[in-house]
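#dry-run=false #mode=assembly
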Amino acid sequence: MPAAVSPLALPLPELPPVGGVRLGAVEAGIRYRGRTDLMMAEFAAGTTVAGVFTQNRCPGAPVDWCRAALSGGRARALIVNSGNANVFTGHAGREAVKATAAAASGLVGCPARQVFLASTGVIGEVLPLERLTTALPALHAGLSEQGWEAAARAIMTTDTFPKAATRTARIGGEEVRLNGFAKGSGMIAPDMATMLAFVVTDAKLPAPLLQRLLSQGVEDSFNAITVDSDTSTSDTLLLFATGAARHPRVPPSGGAMLRAFRAALFELLADLALKVVRDGEGAQKLVRVDVIGAASRRSARRVALAIANSPLVKTAIAGEDANWGRIVMAVGKAGEPADRDRLAIAVGGVWMARQGSVVPGYDEAPVVRHMKGREIEITVDLGLGAGRASVWTCDLTHGYIDINGSYRS
Amino acid sequence: MPAAVSPLALPLPELPPVGGVRLGAVEAGIRYRGRTDLMMAEFAAGTTVAGVFTQNRCPGAPVDWCRAALSGGRARALIVNSGNANVFTGHAGREAVKATAAAASGLVGCPARQVFLASTGVIGEVLPLERLTTALPALHAGLSEQGWEAAARAIMTTDTFPKAATRTARIGGEEVRLNGFAKGSGMIAPDMATMLAFVVTDAKLPAPLLQRLLSQGVEDSFNAITVDSDTSTSDTLLLFATGAARHPRVPPSGGAMLRAFRAALFELLADLALKVVRDGEGAQKLVRVDVIGAASRRSARRVALAIANSPLVKTAIAGEDANWGRIVMAVGKAGEPADRDRLAIAVGGVWMARQGSVVPGYDEAPVVRHMKGREIEITVDLGLGAGRASVWTCDLTHGYIDINGSYRS
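#status=ok
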């Protein structure tokens, strides 16, 4: 029984073609029935690529493959399957990755090292490789510039809605486009999540510059979200630049010419990342945690994550209870510099606690109203310094238990 | 509506008197109705005391009080209330602690610094001090050597059963007794938990020696359990030695004469700690995680805690799914040295995965049977070194959400 669509879902935007890329998806029957589970993108010759990956010490075979392939800086194809993560599958997993890359490179006519791969789904089961390679030729034959929605849908696992975003920007007066799509719902935590995200632009940018932009952009987007504190073995975010746009040459340093592009990219990454949280398993509320006044930015982020990952804070939010006592607990458990008697806490913009106790005359009514909404804002001022950070999460509900107590059955 | 008693509950053992201590409990009406919520113990003159406390940076006023009082090494009284944690209550909280200690010291006839205090319950609400001090004289008048069960019941909050343990040991040929009782159910994580535990022995031991024993004993007991990864602001474990037993003088180093006593104390601490996990909020299964082959003991413990705290592992156990893929994920997310291709995982003693993939010919049947039981055993061999650690936790169920989504209402 598929889960109901998240009440926090946003509609899929219209994704225009991006020069230099064609996409598509098919039903390969890897695990699911009656839905697509294999997507492919083919990129124009000369496409550059950047990537960031899970920090989990037990990554899947596709992550190992992509990390190695990335050193070439060039990409001609992307193959992603859902239903099976090809993680902890040993020799068979490595062979499956090699065979998939070989099959795609034959169809596209490129070195295998220019084929990028990702898999998402169950861990520890051997990928049914032949179903995948059997489906590839027809998939390749059907690629189109309009394939974005199909691609976004094919990579879903426990996702309840497809996630995509689009932006435009100008480089040297010429318009360039950025389209992206992502999946992720549970096992979401920095760095990063059971999270796959793919962004394609028609800008022409050298791979090292692309990598710098992506590594910066991920900080306040995919590395600032958490659903359940569990870090996937498969997290993959790839950024492809086809070079089809006709803007002037960008210097290796990027510089002022890239300002608008960088802003558009960062916005798109944040858009995709928030959509992942909006589809957090069982999520009924989107929660933003702002920590200010911390000893440092790093410290602020740790405190924000301790709050965002606290099961007691998350269940209180699910129960629409502005239980700031649990927020105090979570601040204290982070182990970061904190002084109970300087701490201030606001929910929905209303300061409830200040200087180590409840605010005199505190009126709960506006906070109770805020807690009944879909979007919850928690602000913690540590009163120590200028460090600040924001993290997004969702509440912890019966839906999370339902989904994860019976995922394999 | 009170939650059903945990299916993992154990019966309360008969607690014999311990020389030098009298206990009791009353209904002070602090928060609950129709149940006791205030307990007191009075100790003989000369009683020594040791303690360990929460590492949370935002501790409650009673924790601050006890930390300071501990430097004297002497105790004559213990006062514990449930229903209100007196945490994040600022000046009023500090005054409440002082006034309670003053009232008790008047009744007992001792310095206020020999009164130890603990509070558990809601955070951030001012303790209704007058109810507490009003109830104290009658409570004190009714203390008895038989008051153990009453004491164990009065300190419960979301606990579904009272928790106590008793042991005997010999010191220099003379029998000594140890009785202990504890509370804790949610907000349980090292170091330590919304966990209060009090142990009394009639042994005669100097305070510094008592402290060394307790600090060692906590490592494999209260610091090896986790329910939800949330560390309370109130955790307090106190060990009192009344000196009523007539054993020969123990040298300051303890030495061989204390071997049996130390073993009995450590056993009693582990007994109490496991009872806390057995009453984990919503717990249906008790889970033991053994990590072996780690680079160090510290590393083993961190990996064990990553597994024990993973919402995805815990929900899989609730669903009776031996989902070792999620265990791989949790090992990898710990950030400790781990080599995917050396990793081995067993559930219920059956090795499912070894050297980076599923064991050839793996038969799930005995594991499926094990998962249907009440006590689950997970073993992870990292294959790197000699470090090992064990941690106990429980599954994550709908019950946890029920209890914590509506605690204050």
